[in-house]
Amino acid sequence: MTDAVVVSKLVKTFGRSQALRGVDLRIQAGTVHALVGENGAGKSTALGVIAGRIAKSSGDVRVFGHELRGGHPRFARAAGVFAIYQELTIIPALTVEANLFLGHPLARFGLLSEREMRARYLELCGRVGVAAHPPHTLARSLSVGEQQMIEILRALVTEARIILFDEPTASLASSEREALFSTIRRLRADGVTVVLVSHNLDEVLAISDHITVFRDGAVVADGPRVEFTKASIIDAMLGKHVDPRLAAEFSHEATGVPKEATPRRSHRRGGQRPTLAVSGLTVPGVVSGIEFEVLPGEILGLGGLVGSGRSTVLRALAGVEPRARGRMWIDGEEVPWPHTVRRALRHGIALLPEDRKTQGLVLAMPAMDNIALSNFRGARRWGVVSPRSVEAATRGHGQAFGLSSTRLRDPATHLSGGNQQKLLLARWRYVQPRLLLADEPTRGIDVGARSEILRSLEEMAAGGLSVVMVSSELEEIAASADRVVVLSEGAQVGVLDAATAPISPQGILTLAFGSDNPNDQPAQAQRYESQLEEKVS
Q: CA–CA separation, 507 vs 439, rounded Å?
């Protein structure tokens, strides 16, 4: 079989950090090849080098036998390589056809030919088996999955022979995922080579022909998909013991034994004054009449289905929802409702946002500046804020979450997704709020980093911090929370308490669907999967 991509002794360094350490990789034409590994393992860096987005430090990359000139995507495009990233490059104000032929317009006598572009668009839709949108449809009206499909069609417009996907399903509903996989299979049947980076190992095993596992910038396992199981991939990724709570996510798969509720740590609450109490929390049209309290050292989960209002509650508490209203007590004293982030921070309320890249971090700034961002005054030395004083003030907070001090001066954009999330945790450890609101803290993070993030939240709670946590992974909520407030369609429908009975995903779903019948739970779980669509912000 022909080799589409051959990588030899590939090395890439970012400052003092070595992201790739002599990587050898062979990708066969007309296959689906998956690159997996922990955050920071090097898989996305390798993808970026093949895409021409990242210049290699040394080594050799060949595409269909020809050496790839690195450092600019146009060289990769000329070689037949097209990359599709999580952050799509669709322009919302343009039509579908305009986006599709952006940079490659079809023209006749020097004028754009809308008729030819429409005909080509319909032809490509038929090729990949997707429905065409009506003429003049604006891209802003499309779902994330539909926008991603336009990116795929754009790759075919450029006659790409290799399509690279970076976390293609991270923002897709289950129905859109299946549509994407169907398209990938059609592309493979058409002879197109597909390379994908994904943290979803179930999807990797379902769609790929070949799997390469990265660890610490090197390839540690490589072979046909039939040689791997979910457990063996994780063993190769981590090279260490996996948190039993997360290992349970794949162990039941092999045994067929249903997951059990995770045993909870005991939590004493007698006589404690709540860190936060809210009553009548309402955001018109989204949530109404929410009330709960959070105690010192407690992790409170907000459970429910996508669109139930979980993230809206966090945003309202953090001062991000100006329409929010209700009553709030901090340490037993009633305070004005925070309608700005600054006011929430004065109350001691901090938000770990769902989208760390656009809502939490300034990617171009050094890691240490991102940690100190909410309180640069605390990094002063002799009244002056300098790089040295910021590094000294933030070093210990980064190290508490496993961030190497050698990376503090690197831009945040050079860090892996897991390390970026740890950067936000380090920021709030530095600021020391009373209450941390964690919205999807493990989204887009591999199993090893996920375990570390959950353990960090529990350690922070053990130190007295109050935590309110939202996660679409109900197993995480069940494993970490002392209590769970369950929401459904913007209303509070119940509370589960680990002090009285183990919390399980099935219990959360039972309340969310309004059923007391355990026999309904399999159907509820199926409905839950079918409703995993973009969250209401």
A: 21
